[in-house]
């Protein structure tokens, strides 16, 4: 009789947004990389600051590009940077809200070293009411000698019915 | 169209992600990936990185097919890619087709479009520049 209408908060699991409020990149990476595309890539948390996040993409034989060359494909770097950028935006806003990539540019300045993890570091340098702007780099151990540079724009996804 | 034996030239990354040749269209390969966990971002949607990987793979496939037609041999190296995300990728098969805008001696410029059920409503597009290096010995 009305028992199940509304359980008090302590009897239900916190929703994802509750868990992640006061956004913690390490915790969030563990959450996201437990499944889906990020899980398949094996992305790991590396480091973060107030407005930036760095993730690690461990070396994997089955993520190589052209046959006969021992070079990581470019696709995984794009995924790594997309994920690190989303994290940087949530970190800069200090909350988890729905965002979607609008535009992402990657310049591949040199091949990554064989056997090395690639680290993707992205910084959110501007947030407006509707958009978030990021720039970043990927490196394989020395951030002073990047393998790629990126620039991207994400849109905040407005809650239904409101802009 | 001539079936060029270049499909084994799909990168290990592309094979691992589940990308495969869907069909040929006017001599260009349409690549496809079906929706499963390896491409999933937020629940029931494509991860932007997976969509980007499909676009990039279709771009390379178009270039390899054209180089094979011209009997040219080259090592392909990425210079850059710019991806525009136009609509959320839903939980169904995605397709992509690359078009070579310019094929030079050292580099190629390729535009790529990805779509799901309705080809006239692309979910993402990309422009990419690829370096064509001399194969080393």
Layout of helices and strands:
The complex is a heterodimer of chains A (163) and B (137).
Chain A: H1 16-20, H2 25-32, H3 36-41, E1 44-48, E2 52-57, H4 74-93, E3 99-108, E4 118-127, E5 131-139, E6 148-156
Chain B: H1 12-17, E1 19-25, E2 28-33, H2 48-69, E3 75-85, E4 94-103, E5 107-115, E6 124-133
Antiparallel strand pairs in B: 1-2, 2-4, 3-6, 4-5, 5-6
Protein name (chain B): PaaI family thioesterase
Organism (chain B): Qipengyuania qiaonensis
Domain Thioesterase (chain B): 45-120
State the distance separating the first and last CA atoms of chain B: 32 Å
Quote the beta fraction of chain A: 25-35%
CATH superfamily of chain B: Hotdog Thioesterase
| Major sheet description of chain B | 6 strands, antiparallel
Q: Sum up the overall morphology of chain B in one term.
A: globular
> What form of chain A results from the Cα inertia axes?
globular
Number of helices of chain A: 4
Contiguous runs where pLDDT drops below 50 for at least 5 residues of chain A? 1-10
For the record, what CATH class of chain A applies? Alpha Beta
How much helix is in the residues of chain B? 10-25%
- Taken together, the total number of domains of chain A comes to 1
* SSE series of chain A: HHHEEHEEEE
Q: Kindly state the mean pLDDT of chain B as a whole number?
A: 91
Strand segment count of chain B? 6
Number of domains of chain B: 1
**Of all protein chain pairs, which has the greatest interface, and how many residues does each chain bring to it?**
A-B, 35 and 35 residues
**Secondary structural class of chain B:** alpha+beta
Oligomer: heterodimer
Radius of gyration of chain A, whole Å: 18 Å
> What is the N-to-C succession of helices and strands of chain B?
HEEHEEEE
Side by side, the strands of the main sheet of chain B go 1-2-4-5-6-3
Domain Thioesterase (chain B): 45-120
Organism (chain B): Qipengyuania qiaonensis
Protein name (chain B): PaaI family thioesterase
């Amino acid at each position: 009789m009305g028992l199940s209408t509304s359980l008090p908060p302590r009897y239900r699991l916190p929703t994802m947004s509750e868990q992640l409020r006061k956004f913690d990149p390490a915790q969030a990476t563990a959450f996201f990389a437990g499944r889906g595309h990020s899980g398949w890539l094996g992305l790991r948390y590396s480091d973060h600051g107030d407005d930036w996040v760095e993730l690690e993409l461990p070396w994997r034989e089955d993520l190589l590009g052209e046959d006969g060359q021992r070079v990581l494909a470019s696709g995984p770097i794009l995924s790594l940077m997309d994920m690190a950028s989303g994290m940087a935006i949530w970190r800069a806003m200090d909350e988890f809200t729905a965002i979607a990539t609008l535009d992402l540019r990657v310049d591949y300045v040199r091949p990554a070293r064989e056997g090395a993890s690639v680290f993707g570091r992205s910084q959110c340098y501007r947030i407006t009411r509707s958009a978030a702007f990021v720039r970043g780099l990927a490196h394989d151990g020395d951030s002073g000698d990047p393998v790629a540079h990126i620039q991207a724009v994400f849109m905040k996804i407005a809650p239904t019915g409101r802009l | 169209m001539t079936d060029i034996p270049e499909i084994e030239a799909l990168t290990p990354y592309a094979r691992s992600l589940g990308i495969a040749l869907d069909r040929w269209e006017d001599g260009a390969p349409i690549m496809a990936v079906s929706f499963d966990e390896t491409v999933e971002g937020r629940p029931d949607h494509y991860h932007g990185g997976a969509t980007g990987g499909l676009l990039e793979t279709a771009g390379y496939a178009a270039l390899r097919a054209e180089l094979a037609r011209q009997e040219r041999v080259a090592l392909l190296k990425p210079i850059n890619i710019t991806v525009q995300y136009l609509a959320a990728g839903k939980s169904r098969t995605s397709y992509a087709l690359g078009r070579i805008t310019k094929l030079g001696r050292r580099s190629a410029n390729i535009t790529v479009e990805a779509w799901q059920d309705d080809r006239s409503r692309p979910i993402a597009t990309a422009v990419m520049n690829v370096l064509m290096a001399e194969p080393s010995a």
